[in-house]
Structure formats: structure tokens, C-alpha cells
Design brief:
The protein is mainly α and 65 residues long. The protein has helices at residues 10-24, 28-36, 42-63.
């Protein structure tokens, strides 16, 4: 069994991140505040967790420059 790797550029990750946040209907600030306080609907919490993962990837990718 072989694994698969999905590769995205930092630009693509920024775009995906923006689309995810927009899909919640919340501002990034409100999403962050509610996420940190565990006050999100389950579908919004999944978005918040994904945004955090993207931020982690971007920190690593942008630190390599």
C-alpha cells in the first residue's frame, strides 16, 4: 500500500483558508474567539481545526524562505 501526498503552495493554502473562514459566515476574529472558547457549532469547529492546521503548515512553509 502506498501513501499519497497532497501538495499545495502557500498561496493555495491562503486561498483555502480564506474560503473556509468565509463559509462559516463569521469573521476570522469571531471564529478564533469562539473556537478557543469551544463555543462553535460542530461544523464550524471542524473549520476552525482545519484553519489551525493550515496555519501550522503555513508557519513551516513560510519559515523555510
Amino acid at each position: 500500500m502506498t501513501g499519497s501526498v497532497i501538495r499545495k503552495t502557500p498561496k493555495e493554502l491562503h486561498e483555502q483558508r480564506a474560503r473556509l473562514i468565509a463559509s462559516t459566515g463569521l469573521s476570522e476574529k469571531v471564529l478564533r474567539e469562539r473556537g478557543e472558547a469551544f463555543q462553535l457549532y460542530p461544523e464550524h469547529m471542524k473549520v476552525w481545526e482545519t484553519v489551525q492546521g493550515i496555519d501550522y503548515l503555513l508557519d513551516g512553509a513560510e519559515g523555510d524562505r
